Structures
1.
Amino acid sequence: MNRQRDVVILGGGPAGMTAALWCRRLGLSHLLLEAEERLGGQLFAIQNEVIDYPAVPVKSGAELQVKFAAHVELLGCEIERGVWVREVHLAERLMRVRLANGGEEQIGFRGLIAATGGAERRLGVPGEQEMIDRGEVYSATRDRERFAGKRAAVVGGGDRAFEGALLLAEHGADVVLIHRSEQFRAREEFLQPVLAHPKIELLTHAKVERIYGERAVQGVEVALRDGTVQQLEVQGLFVRIGVEPNSHLLRGQVATDAEGYPLVDATGQTSFPGVFAVGDLCTRPLYSGIASAVGQAMIAAKQVSLYVEQKGAEL
């Protein structure tokens, strides 16, 4: 074993940074590991004004990231970026990581706070990975002007799909909203404007089977309810079919629900003692947010401190 800490924190988004802040305040030896070269996690995906995080008015998630990162660095939290966690062995209280310099190391821990968040659910169809590799992953807020006068497809039936379709249409795009059924999860504030918008076409009981285009997205093939396949020529595709938890490192070691979300108690502790899950990793999209992630991380850090104090001698 190369290093040992009271607490290791996985993930450098708002939940992970808050957990590190509280571990620092509580006097725990800690280490936050972030796979990317910068902290922030999903904050960079927020292109619009952040209005639901009290007392910190900012125009984007990136602006809020600057404040978060500066705060934890000012406090002297131990943070390492560019570190890829390969395996976590809870029974042995250790993990294997690949460092930014290419070296490998084992890190031991007494308590673990997993704040690895969630990832956009993919369609899993031919052409999708090529689209992602080309960088054709768009934000309706950021890229709405790009699609003015063009045709775009949005896949999904929830708030994000409907809000995105509306933003694109209001800025001059012709939008095809594709959904697998005719039942939508979107709230009324998004549902009715979309249904009434002349530049939005609804295609229900439909499933995207393939994305085509060599240098850029040129269209999608959609399977319809009657068994026929329709080709839609579009210049952009927005996949908004939900989020799935990044729980693979804990899989098979903690109890989860059918979708892979770790089951936690009121303090964020999983079924494995001393191991906690916070933020989007354990919170479904309906209830997730920056404020909830921060609160969960604070509670988990306080509880892991008690755990380390009570059980540390046994470990």
Note: The CA atoms of residues 14 and 290 lie 7 Å apart.
2.
Amino acid sequence: MISSLSITNYALIKKLQLEPDAGLNIITGETGAGKSIMLGAVGLLLGNRADTKALLDKDKKCVVEGEFDISKLGLQALFEEEDLDYESSSIIRREINSKGKSRAFINDVPVTLEVMKTVGLRLIDIHSQNESIQLGNKSVKVKLIDDFAQTAKELQQFQSDYIAFTQLSKKLADLLEEEKNSKTDEDYKKYLLDELVAAHLKASEQAELEEELKLLEHAEEIKLKLSQISVEFDESDVAINDRLKEAASALKNISGFSKELETLSSRFESATEEIVDIVRDIVNIQENVEHNPARLEEVSQRLDLIYKLQQKHKVADVEGLVKIQTQLERETIGAINLEEEIKELKAESERLKKQLIKSAELLSEKRRSVIDTFSISLNGLLAEVGMPDGHVAFVYKRVEPWKLGIDEIEILFSANKGIKPEPVGNVASGGEFSRLMFCIKYLLASKTAMPTVVFDEIDTGVSGEIALKMANMMRRMSTNHQIISISHLPQIAARGQAHYFVYKNNEAEKAESMIRKLEPADRLEEIAKMIGGENPSDTARNSAKELIEME
């Protein structure tokens, strides 16, 4: 139920605070005072669309916040599903800034409007003359029967089976599509794999082959240059090796004269040894390098093959080709196993389908067992709310399994004697629909944990004894459920356990909608005005008192 409601900077509301009673709350007021505006603000907590037009002061943000006692609504699973912290007293808040940007919060955690709508609709149920569209929704119609039949256990079992079956069906469909595609590509993939396998690729060979190719292509030039270096070092008239030895000997002879000379001598000796090692390596390379046309051709052909495979598979190195080969091998093995996996899934699908149909039949049987009772009860209530010739019938239709079972329910309605009932959304007027929904909610109130129910002038078009009956029905509903009724009827206003009056304050710079809870004397005066006009007579006051004291 709503523990408190705060509205700031919305339409004509500058600041409004409301703490409704746990039972029947009545809201009355002048036409245009802001009763509908309040419902618009509450609609923001249900995820309804908002923009800057809703702001009273365009430079400030609008905030609508509701605190709810949800301890008896069984919402723990929903909160867990939406990854929200469950609190028995939870706060929902909606903010709209001056640029029209909207933000939603549940227990101070930012949420999407979709999540807010999902949670909000479990907390507040608004009924007005404009909501006949609800009964065009097939889920809503089935849920009405479920609430009356109390099918929570059977529905939970069916939905568990339905999820298992649909998830497996999707997996099976994906595998069948994969099998179809794999058969189309199988020959080509086998050709690609055979080509890669025949190439005997090694991850590091490309770099090694490219280096070897350079040596083979320039073998003669390399051999010539290295030979020249070797001759200059050892065999020429002024051999570098001999001159280095002479210099090293000279430095060594004078190294004892200072630390600096000793260091230079040591460094020169080390450098000379390094040069000698380098020349030795040069000689070895010179001796091993040879012009080998056969090997050159072999390396060139190998690299050409690698480059062609890389181009075909759009990769930059041999490592990429090896990965593709591994993937093709995996797909080949997978294709062998795919048929067996599909066979197993088909068998499992048949088993799950049988289980699904079994749980669907149990759910459907329980629904159908209450349809006659539900319609008879509704038809009796319609007479009490001013539709003595009203007739409701529920038509059951079996369909393929969907998220709520194998049933679709059509609600047929006729307000007049001798007229064949038709789908309620096509024939019921606003007032008729409102009273029909009121009767439905009345019947369900004793069978399910309903959210806060808001009736928005559903009593339009009724008066006298009928209005009194509706008032008493609301009062009985409020025994176990919080009810908020926006009404213009004194009979209903008199049955309230808390009475709020909405009025427009024209003394401020801008007109503002205000609300106040009426004390007993003010409440009597307001109901008297509802009976006898702005200046009620003593007779109207006495009538108001009688209505208030009526049991």
Note: The CA atoms of residues 122 and 451 lie 6 Å apart.
3.
Amino acid sequence: MMNLATPEISVQKLQTSLQAKAKAEPDYRFYSLWDKVCRLDVLEEAYRRCRGNRGAPGVDDVTFAQIETEGRERWLENAREELMSSNYRPQPLLRVWILKSNGGRRPLSIPTVKDRTVMTAAMLVIGAIFEADLLDNQYGFRPKLDAKMAVRRVFWHIRDHRRSEIVDADLRDYFTSIPHAPLVKCLTRRIADGRLLSMIKDWLTVAVIERDGRRTTRTAESRTKKRGTPQGSPLSPLLANLYFRRFLLAWRKHGHQDQLDAHIVNYADDFVICCRPGSSETAMVRMQTLMNRLGLEVNETKTRLARVPEDSVTFLGYTIGRFHGKGGQAFLGTRPSKKAIRRLLKQIHDRTTRQWYPDTPENTVAVINRILRGWCGYFDQGPVVETYNLIRQYVDRRLRHWLVQRTGARGRGFKRYSQEYLHETLGLYRLPRARADMPRAKA
């Protein structure tokens, strides 16, 4: 009988099987994994995911469009042949710099499409295994978990369990600081396949190329320092979770969680420790000690103690603290942080400046809609109506101003560009007017 299973379905079956084995036998080490990475269906699914992310090309300048034009099936077969014959070698990463909201920059290391596909194939295989080992307070880059769940977990600790003293921690350059030797130990605890381990080590130490006009520089920082997982690699989120798991296990093993009633909530390199009153200072000292042992540096200037509700704490874009309703009644809840709101308004402002006058109103509204839908899709917890109203007013005013200015007309455009015109004719997204019920409680 013909097998009609798509690569996505067959990979899901493989992952289910691997994860079931890992859950059933916590000490089991997997020996035959490289052959699964090389499976054509796994590579096809990996390529599909990479293409869906619409990433930029790497150092070889090969794009997804080129691969599709020249033949995706042949390209995947060639890649598989390289892997099976041990001729595959990862190419250097292309480093670009991304502006941060505070004016700084962070490095992004872009693999070639081929390397990205192979890394994703490896992630599809080993990710299913290590998913069984990650802890229930790790929320980053995991199936069926997200940042909003982490925020709700923090709120639950504060409201329901009175763990109202918070260690708001910050690690300095976590991804680029992870030491390779203990990270590899995290991997070998489950992986006994030498070819796969060797390939992951190669990916960790691959050279980096940076282009600045006509000048090209090549460095091997990771190989020299023996630290770091490249931000931009499909494997980095999983590796970062695995290493952070060491800290979480040590926190429990040394008794800090039970002795101090201090519970950690983690998302990628962000984490807070929710403590019972009077224990947060001790928790912070013990956290710093463990991080030092793990070879990680705590950013002391950004790490602070907060006592909720007298203080507020911002975690993953949400501010948790005491707010006041229309009647003046105080409540404990979450709201989008001021920083998150300012960042959104700046995006809207930057998309409605003079440089965009040649663009059509329909296209500009389509871009604004994508921004608003994405933002509101995340910031929809708690009493957000007041924030939505502020954003709605700003967007309407800013869009009208842009429409007036691009035509050289005068005035504010209230008559010419009415609410009906903005929302019905142009299709501007209507922000929800209903408020979410959680998280919120009397303060």
Note: Residues 385-407 form the longest helix (23 residues).
